[in-house]
UniProtKB/TrEMBL annotation:
The lineage of its organism: Bacteria, Pseudomonadati, Myxococcota, Polyangia, Polyangiales. This is Quinol:cytochrome C oxidoreductase. Keywords: Membrane, Transmembrane, Transmembrane helix. It comes from the Bacteria. The chain crosses the membrane at residues 24-45, 51-72, 92-110, 141-160, 181-202, 208-236, 257-278, 298-317, 324-345, 357-381.
Length: 402
């Protein structure tokens, strides 16, 4: 059981101080400016590569935001009490989804470069693509994207809006309303992220398919968002802003969730691989063949050990999940691995003979991340650090891990 000295008796800060808020927003703006400059230079230098690099960066920040939305929904679905403060931090991440919708516009502009296999005139001469034309066509592709973002932005705005409203009124019925919406929200979220994964990633190779691919995308979103949550949690605790409502016990719980979803990601990835390997159908095995040619083999092995084996061993210990440096280091590592995972999914479509990292890839990452970070920083700076009138605050403050 947690010892008494691990949980502070100091009061929690309600908001970020003006200096910290200004600094946070300044960093976000700086990242955005550097990213946009690099992306613009990449567009002039090699627009075709920038298209794929930008897709990778866009998916990195969007999956983190979606993982935040999932966390918020699932806490209301399960009526969890421990996660009052972390839920607010995930509301910040999911609040980036309107920015992600705006960031999708370059994908629309680049779409004929990125999805040329089925958007080009050559698709009319491909028997397999002709049978998929009812689904894989530009108009329906854009309509579906609008539907996905409509669902996500509505859900993120609803839960965050009711939560902030409760900060003012303290109305317990708002908690009930959020709990009532959570079941259908879970269904809508699951279907939308699955089909978005099909559209934006799996259709890069329209001959390939995997019925478990949507779950794989979701697993990556969960791991990356929990990693970001761990860093936010650690940052606020080390700044001395949260003591009771977010302490070592909550850090431990976040570490346990992160550990669990790391294992889940590996399980889904292995399940997909072993079924395709066993069936040995040419259209399916080509996906892995392209990721085993040249130095893509090295990237594949780095993912195996870096996204599963190493973090599994590091976070297996109870003490690791409770230690600032170890959990924080693991969280940063997993965010890098999540980017590498998306890079491994996207970039072989550009060149399956080998991985060639470029400064253009950095621009493709920093531009969308910086823009979304500006909105996240604004949300963090303008609102409360946790739901100050949530009816489960006493339960959250009393959490202990055995």
């Amino acid at each position: 059981m947690a010892t008494s000295h691990e949980v502070s008796t100091k009061p929690d800060a309600i908001k970020l101080d003006a200096e910290s808020a200004k600094k946070l927003q300044g960093i976000a703006i700086g990242v955005a400016v550097v990213g946009v400059i690099l992306a613009a230079a990449g567009y002039v230098t090699d627009p075709h590569r920038l298209a794929f690099s930008y897709l990778t960066g866009f998916l990195w920040i969007t999956t983190i935001a979606l993982g935040g939305l999932f966390f918020v929904i699932i806490q209301h679905l399960t009526k969890a009490g421990w996660s009052v403060a972390p839920r607010r931090h995930m509301e910040w991440l999911s609040g980036a989804l309107p920015a992600c919708a705006l960031l999708f516009l370059p994908i629309v502009l680049f779409s004929h470069d990125i999805y040329h296999h089925w958007m080009s005139a050559e698709a009319a001469h491909d028997e397999i693509l002709q049978k998929k034309a009812g689904y894989l066509n530009p108009t329906f592709f854009y309509v579906r994207a609008a539907i996905y973002f409509g669902i996500w932005i509505f859900l993120a705005s609803y839960f965050a809006g009711r939560s902030r409203e409760q900060d003012k009124s303290g109305d317990r019925k708002l908690t009930e309303k959020m709990q009532n919406l959570a079941p259908p929200a879970t269904l809508l979220f699951g279907l939308s992220i699955t089909f978005a994964g099909f559209d934006w990633l799996m259709s890069l190779d329209p001959h390939w398919y995997s019925t478990i691919f949507g779950v794989y995308v979701f697993a990556g979103a969960a791991v990356s968002s929990l990693s970001m949550l761990a860093l936010i949690n650690i940052g606020l605790q080390r700044a001395g802003l949260l003591h009771k409502i977010s302490n070592v016990e909550h850090r431990h719980d976040i570490g346990k969730l992160l550990f669990g979803f790391i294992v889940f990601w590996a399980y889904i990835g292995f399940s997909q691989f072993i079924l395709i390997w066993y069936a040995n159908i040419p259209e399916e095995t080509l996906f892995y063949r392209h990721r085993w040619e040249g130095n893509w083999k090295v990237v594949s092995m780095v993912l195996l050990f870096g996204h599963f084996v190493i973090p599994f061993l590091v976070l297996l210990s109870r003490h690791a999940k409770r230690h600032y440096t170890v959990l924080g280091g693991a969280a940063v590592w997993m965010l890098v691995m999540h980017y590498l995972d998306l890079y491994w999914l996207v970039m072989p479509t550009l060149d399956h003979h080998g991985a060639h990292f470029s400064w253009i890839d950095l621009g493709g990452l920093l531009a969308p991340v910086g823009v979304a970070a500006v909105l996240i920083a604004r949300l963090a700076a303008s609102g409360h650090l946790y739901p100050i009138k949530d009816p489960r605050l006493p339960e959250a403050a009393a959490v202990q891990n055995i």
